[in-house]
């Protein structure tokens, strides 16, 4: 019997159709309803669950009362177990609680319908303990935990539960500053990583013999960087799974979401603040290694407190090394990498083209915009 | 070139004005030239291509081609004793029947559904070769044996992480050129001598030159001179002791009677499939194979396609597909991971047909026949004054070195004289291997009748006593 | 005209023989062919011959090849042949970038004539004047078509041609003592992956340019990418989406100024024969696939020829030998000063060159131009019709914009709407007797499919192909599961790949399959 968790955020996506960006905060939800918004997420969740109907007899769905999952699960005829108590208005807290409970019950997979906010709430409870698939339903979906459409989310769940998909990838959970976002400003900050099942598209291809996995690509990039590291240089390593690989190759400790500093193969500071960085970078040879974060490919966003405009100016464009797997670049679909610091001067300095390390002795020259 | 030209080409259906104009109307252009708008004026070729006047009628084309081709004098019309990497063996009729089938001839890169036959034919080729070389993994053919050898050596380098290759004994000079170009700039090639008397690899020289930097010891069996290398076991021990692999290049048509290299410690076996039912085609009939054990560390290094057998959604039905090796872990030796492209698939299918027709007994019979004929030829040649055959004191399969030094004549003149009598003499080795002086490499296969051999001997005798 | 739009779709079913693997047809003792025995006198003279082989090297156990009677071998392979959809049999426009056109059968007569097949590469030059003449004259033809100075036919395919070129680029810089400094090759993401792969074998670092928003390689990115480390540019034009980069001459100029060389991957030459050339584009090297543009059949994946051409100053690096003519005789010239040596034994696949020669001779200058023009017309006509299919989009499209010989399309919308992917469509197209190809990796364009009609198919045949695609699109919107579980009328049903990606389970040969999956059955 597969134990599958289901969390539906009933208010996710309600802002979108009426022009509001997100539904964080009860005032926004009220406003949305006044503007005539209706709940989108439950319908999306239903579309996803329909793909699992064929496994009905071997799945038990563990979910929350009524609109938070019970309704759609029962509609599809699944065996359902309810946790938590029914409420009139649901909140982020409910999501967090539910996720915690489900983790204790040792579910195999967690399906959720919502947006970035929902993803964050789930992450804060379970971290990377259980694989998760996001059914896209929110307005803000910068995190890469979401499938491209609800049907695909269901399909992926099916493939994972039946063992046809075995790979798990780390997917970024983004922390978007809501206030700024409503003003049309996206600040890209990493919140954490959820584990997501991943289907490698098995394509019969006459021209390739072996295909590299993402881990392979990341290791290759790390090998190229480490090989080119110079003595007496300070290397500031930004957050990301690709940059993390460098630390792992060097056998060093690192911070998951923060900025670390390496020199001559040793870790000299971990998870530094801007102040610490200013002291370290002062008058010495420094290089900054960053990788694009989030669905839009931010190499520097406002959320990066530590990598402030002051630091960037001090390091200089020529000493900024951008690394990215090819799959990440391709996911941008031709859109440029983005920088969005607080400082126009810095933005202009970085815009144009930048060399990106995409493998061992493999590079790309890619546009950067702000 | 006006679109309203009425010339209708049999190979170009839409040269028919009715079609052409209808299509142009539909995409709303009045001249085909409009479709080339993106090519700037300065890049548009305005000149004339100085090509011959076309032969529109098929009959004219045929006459023209026959006229040119008639200038060729073939090994069918003459008696050829040439070998050295390309050999005349008998090609069964069924082989040509199958590789001229429209389906196999014109297929390319379809899926394992509509091209199921192609996948199966190539899987069967891999499987039959696997039995011949007694190893579990064989690839879809690459360009030729030289490429197979070069790739095998790069594979070895990726597996062991070392950058030095020892090429031992007498190796085909053209193959060596290909290997050298393919391995440069990062892999070093060191030559190891052969014994001038026994034709075997000089083990002392090998031991001197091998070190822990070695990634592989490579040799050919039979060697370029046709000698069978008997020290395989020792060589593999020397290689394995320093953590290197043994890569052996073998002639597949010997394997019905001679033990395959996997029996004496070879890790990677490569070779050319041309002797297996493929015409010489002026050197275009080559195809390379690479065989290894079924271990991940080998399989992950093949740059070519590997076809595997799998199931379909229908119970009991199976299909084929590419073994989807996913590289999960990068190691620094990944540079130069090579490329994959169109190579020699049709020859692979042909070799499969050949092996299926021959079966184990056929391969045994042909090996025996070839050895007997070659030995007979060597004996008879040795009866000629001044001629020593074979020069090297080693067992041989279908080729051997004939030493003409004592005759006072050079191979060039001898071959010229033989040519006048309709005989293509063995390959002149005097420039490639000056240490052998005036020697030639003679090749005898099952296609040479006793009369052919006696005719050679008689003619040589006559030439040398003039 | 409206009748052609209602092109009838065939009720196609491919041969489904349920053909066993050949080993399963084996009967102990069966003989497919008997081998010539040495004459009695020879046997009398030398004995069995085998005893000359040292005991430890004699094969003890005969190889476990299958044993069949002759007609059984024939029947088996004919069944497999029927289960292969060769280009001769279908509207072969689905294999984009492969340029699969009609290979005239008359050329097969020449290629398989004993005047070609029974030649040994080391025969005296006087005995192979016909072969050398064809090699030489085809070289001359390609010079006319490309504007470059000299061609060789040694490489066995396009990727191999790229490798030969990468080798020559390296040799050039080595000669000038700059190969340590100049270690970067620039290519584009839409170029064939072998451009990068071949360069990497030669130790080059590879810099890839991504397309700008219109699909062209980004020239500003190129300017950023060149430096004094640039060894060369390896690029295709038009790229696989069919767009001609009109700034190509500027691209090559920029690279030349930086001290690099320029290589032209002309796998996509079919639409530009006689219209634009490598020379004016500023290229130092180019190659043509004789098995694509020049009609030699693909043979399931070879044998083939990647004909490589160079400008005069680079002839000194070509692999040996060259075929030369002294006014009276053709001869092989091994005297190439800084030759890279060889990329292949001997001279190339003669039958392939013979076919290319004959094809060019049958068409002449005007014919080649007609080939290009009709190929381009066909492609634009096809594109116009596909643009009307629900769910299909044409990346980088703009009003009035034309393509050259092929287009890369996208089913992104279809997939978003119906969850039917390009691979699902591919399998369903098999049910109509048609091929269809997606794209090289990486898939920059999502859910891609790449079609190249060439000049070989009629308007009605193009309409038939479009009708099949339209049908599959309709099915995706109304009954997606039908498409997702295809094929139904092909040689086999949908494949379960779980035996192909697990080292414990995969079986690349029959014996491996028996070892891993049928332990209880004797081989």
Topology:
The complex is a heterotrimer of chains A (370), B (466) and C (523).
Chain A: E1 2-8, H1 14-17, H2 26-34, H3 41-50, E2 59-63, H4 70-75, E3 79-82, H5 92-104, E4 109-114, H6 116-126, E5 132-136, H7 150-161, E6 168-174, H8 178-182, E7 190-197, E8 211-212, H9 214-228, E9 234-237, H10 241-249, E10 260-263, E11 266-269, H11 274-281, E12 286-290, E13 298-300, H12 309-315, E14 320-323, H13 326-331, E15 337-339, H14 344-350, E16 352-359, E17 362-369
Parallel strand pairs in A: 1-2, 1-4, 2-3, 4-5, 9-12, 12-14, 13-15, 14-16, 15-17
Antiparallel strand pairs in A: 6-7, 9-10, 10-11, 16-17
Helix pairs in contact in A: 3-7, 5-6, 9-10, 11-12
Chain B: H1 17-26, H2 58-69, E1 79-80, H3 93-99, H4 102-106, H5 116-133, E2 137-138, H6 145-160, E3 164-168, H7 173-183, E4 188-192, H8 203-209, E5 214-221, H9 232-241, E6 245-250, E7 268-272, E8 288-292, H10 296-299, E9 307-312, E10 318-322, E11 326-327, H11 345-382, E12 399-403, H12 411-420, E13 423-424, E14 427-428, E15 439-443, H13 450-464
Helix pairs in contact in B: 3-11, 5-11, 6-7, 11-13
Chain C: H1 2-5, H2 40-46, H3 70-82, H4 105-111, H5 114-117, H6 129-146, E1 150-152, H7 158-175, E2 184-188, H8 193-201, E3 205-209, H9 219-225, E4 230-236, H10 248-257, E5 261-265, H11 278-281, E6 285-289, E7 306-310, E8 322-325, E9 330-333, H12 350-386, E10 407-410, H13 412-418, H14 422-430, E11 448-451, H15 459-478, H16 480-484, E12 495-496, H17 510-517
Parallel strand pairs in C: 2-3, 2-4, 4-5, 5-6
Antiparallel strand pairs in C: 1-7, 6-7, 8-9, 10-11
Globally, the shape of chain B reads globular
Largest sheet of chain B: 7 strands, mixed
User: Would you state the CATH class of the largest domain in chain A?
Assistant: Alpha Beta
Number of domains of chain A: 2
CATH architecture type of the largest domain in chain B: 3-Layer(aba) Sandwich
Radius of gyration of chain A: 22 Å
Task: For the record, give the distance between the C-alpha atoms at the N and C termini of chain A, rounded to a whole number.
Answer: 50 Å
Q: How would a crystallographer describe the biggest sheet of chain A?
A: 9 strands, mixed
Tell how many strands the DSSP assignment of chain A holds.
17
Strand order of the largest sheet of chain A: 11-10-9-12-14-16-17-15-13
- Indicate the mean pLDDT of chain B: 95
Q: What class, by secondary structure content of chain B?
A: alpha/beta
